């Protein structure tokens, strides 16, 4: 991953924690069908203004900060200015797109895992499909 100042394919990350938290909110609210009809500005305003403890607790449950940090950290490029010794972090645009895809996959996986733990879904390994399969339990309780 070689950085070239003239390459427009890089994004500067001013605050890693804020980027992770914004990205978590973005994925969380993008998952909600109610937001599908919102214009881009309305959607981004909604994402930027998430502060309710209910939403924050649910985001932490389905998309924990630490898991997200583990996903994004290997894709960040640390750049130190030779003149000022100032550190900045960069990420390729295509890598950030991949981060969002991985956050979404992680969230779906965590939601399914929570449903299995709560007893709403059953799961088994299907050797023919070489994957896990899930189904809704007939009777809950």
Fold topology:
Layout: E1 10-13, H1 16-30, H2 40-48, H3 53-62, H4 65-72, E2 77-80, E3 87-92, H5 93-117, E4 121-126, E5 131-136
Antiparallel strand pairs: 1-3, 2-3, 4-5
Describe the structure using short key phrases:
single chain; 141 residues; alpha+beta; two-stranded antiparallel ribbon; 5 helices; 48% helix
**Rounded to an integer, what's the Rg over CA atoms?**
19 Å
Beta-strand segment tally: 5
How many helices does DSSP assign?
A: 5
- Which series of helices and strands comes N to C? EHHHHEEHEE
Number of domains: 1
Major beta-sheet overview: 3 strands, antiparallel
User: Could you estimate the helical fraction of the residues in percent?
Assistant: 40-55%
Q: Look at the structure and give the mean pLDDT.
A: 86
Task: Characterize the overall form.
Answer: globular
Percent strand equals 15-25%
- Structural class, by secondary structure, is alpha+beta
Distance between the termini: 52 Å
Strands of the biggest beta sheet: in what spatial order? 1-3-2
Q: Unreliable stretches, pLDDT < 50, 5 or more residues?
A: none
Describe what you observe in this structure.
- The protein is an alpha+beta fold.
- The protein has one domain.
- It is built from five helices and five strands, in the order βααααββαββ.
- A three-stranded antiparallel beta sheet has the order 1-3-2. A two-stranded antiparallel sheet has the order 4-5.
- Helix 1 crosses helix 4.
- It is globular.
- The N and C termini lie far apart (52 Å).
- The model has no long low-confidence stretch (mean pLDDT 86).
């Amino acid at each position: 991953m070689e950085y070239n100042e003239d390459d427009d394919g890089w994004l500067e990350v001013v605050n890693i924690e804020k980027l992770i938290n914004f990205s978590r909110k973005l994925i969380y609210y993008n998952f909600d069908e109610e937001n599908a009809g919102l214009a881009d500005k309305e959607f981004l305003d909604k994402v930027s203004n998430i502060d309710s403890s209910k939403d924050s607790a649910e985001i932490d449950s389905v998309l924990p900060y630490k898991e997200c940090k583990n996903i994004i950290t290997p894709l960040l490029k640390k750049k130190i200015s030779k003149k000022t010794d100032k550190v900045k972090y960069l990420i390729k645009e295509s890598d950030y797109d991949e981060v969002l895809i991985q956050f979404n996959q992680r969230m779906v996986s965590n939601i399914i895992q929570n449903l299995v733990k709560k007893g709403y879904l059953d799961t088994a390994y299907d050797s023919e499909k070489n994957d896990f399969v899930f189904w809704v339990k007939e009777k809950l309780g």
